[in-house]
Structures are given as structure tokens and as C-alpha cells.
Amino acid sequence: MGFYVEQVVPRIVNVACGMKPAEELRRRVCQGLRGTVIEIGFGSGLNVPFYPVTVTRVDAVEPSDVGWKLAAKRLDESPVPVRRAGLDGQSLPFEDDTYDAAVSTWTLCTIPDAVAALREVRRVLKPGGTLHFVEHGLAPDEKVRRWQRRLDPLEQRVFAGCHLTRPIVEMLTDAGFTIQDVDVFYEKGAPKTMGADSLGVAVSPG
Question: Alpha-carbon distance 104 to 96, whole Å?
């Protein structure tokens, strides 16, 4: 499992999350980002082409060395400076009230304690700072939820701890965020069990 998780899974995620249908969602998520930004679960840098010119710097939190290496070409072409600045979303090595904004795309499913990570993001955001997110999680329909519960153990084994049944909006509010806007939908081209997305902006009230 060590080799599979460390070497194979980042490459699968790079391909699966880099498909064309996800690009418009990444573009939507990155709209409105400004100033200094922290990105949780940077992966292979698939959001880099969509950072707006209003972003002055991105600090990337990413535990996978392979993911960071896969990001090299995107980083070379990025007009926004990006540095790898952390490895664990549950324990961020930054001072309180550091960032203007944060971004998380399909990341909360794999963090062992996602609410703890969200509390850390809120801590390092300035009062009024925004978390821009798109995450897959618990579906809005009970029929799909039943299948998610059945498939969740297999999903976790195949995709290194990825959960299908996390209630995204509830986790954000539990961490102290205020939801500014959210769109819940099934992602085009993806099975409903894996493509029940929540996309929006949450605010750290300070």
C-alpha cells in the first residue's frame, strides 16, 4: 500500500481530476480569489492555470512529493508565485490571520479529520477571508446515498482514504464558517456516487 499510495494514487488523481469537465468548475472556484492565498491539497497544481491576476501569492499545502513533481510544468508557466509551504492540512505552520483567501478542490474527502483541517484554514484566514471550494460528498438524494454508503469502504481502499459520504456544507459550518453561497449538483460525466459536488464560497467571520 505504501508504494501504491505514494507513487500510483497521485498519478491517477492527476489524470482523473485533470479531465476537461473539471476545468470549468476549477475556473468557477478560483473566481474572486485575491491577495495571498493558501491552497489545501494542491496536488499536481491543476488549479494553477485558473488563478486570477488578483492573486499575489499562493502557499501550497501538499503532502505528496510525486504530486508536487507532477506540478512542475504548471508551476513554471504560472504568472502567480507558488511555494510549497506545508504538508498537513490538519496542522498548518502559519500564524493566525495570515491569508486573504483559501481554495480547496476535491480535497476534503481524503483528509483524515476534515473538520480539524477546516478549523485550521479558518484560523489562518484573516477576518472576513473567504474559502473557495468544490468538493464531492454526500449526495442530495437518498437513493444515491445508499449506494455511496455501500461503496465507501471500497472507495477508501482504492483511492487512499477518499470518502464518498462526507456532508460538505455541514462540515464547513461545524468548523465555524458562514456559507456565502453554495451550488449542489451532480458533476457531468461522473457517476452520481462520486460526483455529488458542492461548489461555493464560505466566509471566516473572525
Answer: 19
